[in-house]
Amino acid sequence: MAQKETGKLTHAVALRVVQTIAPRIDHPLNIMDERGIIIASSDPKRLGNPHPDALRALEENRTVFTAQADPVSGQQPGVNVPLYAGGIVQSVVGVTGTPQEVASLAQLISLTVQLLLTQQEEHVRSTVRATQISDMLSGLVSGSATDKALAGQLKQLGFTAPWSLSLLLDEDDPEPHEAALKINSARWVLSSGPIEVPAAARAILGLPRTQPGDLLVDAENLRTLGAVPALVPAAGLRELWNEDMALSAARAPESHCRSLARRTAQISEDHALTLLALAASATQTEAIARLTVHRNTLIQRMDRIKQVTGSDPRVPGELLALLNSIYARARLGEMHIF
Question: Could you say which residues form the signal peptide (predicted)?
Answer without folding.
Answer: none
